[in-house]
User: Which sequence fits this backbone?
């Protein structure tokens, strides 16, 4: 089972709202990621958690706040977003942690399509 | 130089054709390599990992040339269902995947 589950699938929020995106995997994977993808562009890395610790923050604005409550869950808290933040937000996980080689292939959830109005 | 470069296409081929995609990467320390497939408005799905010796999975063959920093994907006997965007992905360590911009494939009847 290579399933990563994301909720909600679609989200419309106002610029003053606070919302959260959720991601769950039960594959025992050690690394979890948030990516942002705009139309006709490749996914852009936002955050990496390795062994439940934030390992990489790709200079993401503070209106995006990640949280890893345990090894299976990853949240992305959203506050005061801008219309340009509208995109597909993808969660992914991979078996390995901070190493290269095998175990670093990532499995993606179906994504949350976010629209900020 | 971009980290991972791909021809954006689109590649328009008839059913049954053989098509090849190429990808180059700039970081010589890169350690693992993948091809993903992404359908319109869907998530990327892992198609194949790419190993130095080359590997094959049914109609798909992937090859890696570390000396030239070059990765390829060959699709034989194309099906309509192969129409998608193919993303070349490189892991340079630290669990960071770098994506190419993708190559669009359109297979027609």
Assistant:
């Amino acid at each position: 089972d290579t399933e990563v589950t994301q909720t909600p699938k679609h989200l419309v929020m106002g610029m003053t709202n606070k919302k959260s995106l959720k991601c769950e995997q039960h594959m025992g994977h050690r690394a979890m990621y948030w990516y942002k993808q705009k139309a006709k562009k490749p996914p852009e890395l936002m955050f990496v958690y390795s062994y439940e610790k934030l390992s990489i923050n790709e200079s993401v604005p503070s209106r995006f706040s990640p949280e890893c409550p345990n090894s299976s869950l990853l949240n992305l808290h959203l506050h005061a977003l801008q219309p340009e933040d509208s995109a597909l937000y993808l969660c992914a996980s991979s078996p390995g942690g901070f190493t290269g080689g095998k175990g670093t292939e990532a499995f993606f959830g179906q994504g949350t399509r976010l629209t900020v109005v | 130089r971009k980290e991972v470069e791909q021809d954006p296409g689109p590649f328009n081929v008839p059913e049954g054709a053989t098509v090849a995609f190429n990808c180059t990467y700039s970081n010589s320390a890169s350690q693992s390599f993948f091809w993903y497939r992404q359908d319109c408005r869907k998530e990327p799905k892992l198609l194949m990992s790419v190993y130095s010796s080359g590997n094959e999975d049914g109609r798909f063959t992937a090859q890696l040339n570390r000396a030239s920093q070059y990765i390829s994907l060959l699709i034989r006997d194309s099906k309509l269902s192969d129409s998608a965007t193919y993303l070349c992905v490189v892991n340079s360590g630290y669990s960071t995947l770098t994506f190419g911009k993708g190559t669009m494939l359109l297979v027609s009847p």
